[in-house]
């Protein structure tokens, strides 16, 4: 729909209309799962021997995973890290994900299995140990995350599944009332380094992230993409961040994709 920013905004503009809200959530689930099935991360379940293809795939026109931000982030996260040190390394990162998909969890799980030769259970437990928040919910748990009410990455949902999965999608109002919000806002105050990737800096989402409490944010480094935004909008976002975090000079790049930002700032963003 060209006259609204997103389906989330459309649902919010019709808040209180249960029919639009329900249909909107159905549409979100079906669209996200369909997009997962067409991504480079998708593993065709028709052959149990299929694995995630991390390098170039001559049989696909999709961008190879090695050229995506996920691969750049993985290499930053695991640089000089042995298997026994992974849990400690993973404890240094927190994800706040406003999308409904499961890209990050799915990628990390299969990367652990591929690089560190972990078994299914060990990889699952390690990814589960990472602090990951989805303020607006997801299209469901992956099979290795939960035995009940789960759906595979990019799997076509049955009508019964669609009904159940739609209940896990949250509107703007429901997200604001989420029990995770206190934890998220506390993290935004205490974290020494914040990186915004693919974040649109919509006012509603900024309100969810930034606490109005009297707690003073620690001096920190803030980096992020503002890809496609005007210089004026980027400057305005930086001004808002400075007003909140005081002693900080945000580095926002409006000409960089997520991959480009992680590549250019790899030394500043190192975990090693």
Question: Care to give the gist of this entry?
Answer:
43% of the residues lie in helices and 7% in strands. It has 272 residues and is mostly helical. It has a 3-stranded parallel beta sheet with strand order 3-4-5, with no helix packed on it. A two-stranded parallel ribbon has the order 1-2.
Q: Flag low-confidence runs.
A: none
Helical run tally: 12
Question: Separation of termini?
Answer: 45 Å
Give, in order, the helices and strands.
HHHHEHHEHHHEHEHEH
What is the arithmetic mean of pLDDT? 92
**Strand composition percent:** 5-15%
Please state how the strands of the largest beta sheet are arranged side by side: 3-4-5
Main sheet: strands, sense, barrel: 3 strands, parallel
Shape: globular
Level of helix content?
40-55%
The strand count comes to 5
| C-alpha Rg (nearest Å) | 19 Å
Structural class, from helix and strand content? mainly alpha
Number of domains: 1
Question: Could you outline the blueprint of secondary structure elements for this entry?
Answer:
Elements: H1 7-13, H2 18-37, H3 69-78, H4 86-90, E1 94-96, H5 103-115, H6 120-128, E2 131-133, H7 159-166, H8 172-176, H9 181-190, E3 193-196, H10 203-209, E4 221-225, H11 231-245, E5 251-253, H12 258-264
């Amino acid at each position: 729909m060209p006259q609204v920013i997103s389906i989330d905004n459309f649902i919010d503009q019709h808040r209180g209309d249960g029919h639009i809200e329900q249909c909107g959530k159905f549409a979100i689930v079906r669209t996200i799962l369909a997009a997962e099935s067409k991504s480079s991360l998708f593993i065709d379940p028709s052959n149990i021997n299929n694995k995630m293809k991390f390098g170039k795939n001559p049989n696909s026109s999709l961008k190879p995973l090695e050229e995506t931000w996920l691969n750049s982030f993985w290499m930053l996260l695991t640089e000089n890290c042995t298997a026994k040190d992974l849990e400690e390394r993973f404890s240094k990162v927190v994800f706040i994900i406003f999308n409904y998909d499961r890209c990050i969890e799915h990628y990390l799980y299969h990367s652990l299995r591929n690089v560190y030769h972990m078994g299914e259970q060990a990889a699952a437990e390690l990814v589960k140990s990472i602090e990951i928040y989805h303020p607006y919910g997801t299209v469901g748990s992956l099979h290795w995350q939960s035995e009940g009410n789960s759906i595979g990455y990019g799997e076509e949902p049955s009508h019964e599944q669609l009904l159940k999965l739609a209940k896990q999608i949250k509107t703007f109002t429901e997200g604001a009332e989420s029990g995770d919000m206190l934890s998220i806002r506390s993290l935004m105050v205490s974290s020494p380094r914040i990186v915004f990737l693919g974040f649109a800096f919509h006012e509603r989402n900024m309100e969810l992230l930034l606490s109005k409490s009297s707690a003073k944010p620690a001096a920190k480094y803030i980096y992020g993409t503002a890809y496609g935004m005007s210089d004026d909008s980027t400057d305005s976002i930086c001004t808002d961040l400075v007003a909140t975090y005081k002693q900080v000079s945000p580095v926002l790049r409006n000409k960089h994709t997520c991959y480009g930002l992680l590549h250019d700032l790899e030394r500043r963003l190192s975990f090693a």
